[in-house]
Amino acid sequence: MRAIYLLPALVVVLVLVLSSVFIVDERKKALVLQFGQVMQVKETPGLGFKIPLVQDVVLYEDRILGMQTAPTEVTLLNDRRLVVDAFARWRIVDLVRFRQSVGTGAEERAQQLLGSILTQAIPEVLGNATQEQVLSQDRAVLMNQILAIAKREGAALGVDVIDVRLTRTDLPEQNLEATFARMRAERQREAADERARGGEAAQRVRASADRTVVELTSDARRQAEIIRGEADAERNGILAAAYGRDPEFFGFIRSLAAYEVSLQGSNSSIVMQPDSEFFDYFRSESGPDVADRSPGASATPSP
Q1: pTM score
Q2: 109 CB-near residues (< 8 Å, 6+ apart)
Q3: How confident is the model at residue 239 (pLDDT cuts 50, 70, 90)?
């Protein structure tokens, strides 16, 4: 009978002993709470003990945690507006104060509180800076100022803010569209200037080419006229010399040439006065065979 009662008692004792032991991982910290009050803080990994059924163990992260803030619109010193967000790294350093600050919300509640701190610190610091400072090497100085504020405010929560980085610094959507429109207008103006300069250069090239064509054409015509004049002079000299040697024969040859040109074709007719000078050699007694030697055409004198 005694063994029957002893076995359940041993089971109960074993359960109580196991319930009084808890293990803290090396990545965690632990608080032992009794009716909501902190009774024990365990920050080193290993075994811990608590009162079963009376005390509870709450584990918290001992690692460095990261958080991303919501985008915040900031007005800079030169009235420029930017949309800024930041990334922060933080760690729990005072478990008791952390528990008192965030309650049962743990790390999630701490993220919200830190986000509010950074959302207030970013406009406070960047509101005294220009756009050039935010977008230049001076940005590191601004981030250190934000970090100092976050450290001071975070200490009240029992956390240490290790680092704060600005991850985005963009123009608001409406300003972004205006900036893009201004950039497009500037590029279009530059393109128009380039086209105008190109058109001006092309016009100069065309004008130079046209002037060169006119000069070459004028020179060629001048040389052609010179050559033609020299040839005409030489021809006239030859004709004059020939005429001076035998004027009668010269006139006869010129008349034959005129007859040949005038009586081209097999069906040519000429109508003129019978006493026309054109027929002098047809009527001449010194050349009765001229008509016989002319081309096969008929001349019909008008009555």
Answers
A1: 0.54
A2: 102, 103
A3: confident
Smallest CA-to-CA distance from 115 within 76, 171, 159, 59 is with 159
pLDDT of 68 over the 70 cut: yes
Query: pLDDT at position 290, please?
Result: 40
Q: Is residue 301 part of a domain?
A: no
Based on the fold, state whether residues 166 and 216 are members of the same structural domain: no
Q: What digits encode the pLDDT tens for the residues 15-47? A: 777 778 888 888 889 988 888 888 888 888 888
Rounded Cα distance, 36 and 28, in Å: 20
Listed in sequence order, the residues at least 6 apart from 95 whose beta carbon sits closer than 8 Å to its beta carbon are 29, 31, 38, 41, 43, 60, 158
Same domain, residue pair 43 and 83: no
DSSP letter for each residue of 93-144 = --HHHHHHHHGGGHHHHHHHHHHHHHHHHHHHHHTTS-HHHHTSTTHHHHHH
Residue 268 lies in a domain: yes
Torsion from C-alpha of 178, 184, 186, 187, nearest 10 degrees: 160
d(CA 43, CA 62): 8
Number of domains in the chain: 4
In a shared domain, residues 56 and 79: no
Same domain, 165 and 90: yes
CA dist., res. 102 & res. 111, Å (int): 10
**Domain assignment of residue 76, given as a range:** 65-170
Mention every residue, 6+ apart, whose C-beta is less than 8 A from residue 74.
Answer: 81, 82, 83, 84, 122, 123, 126, 127
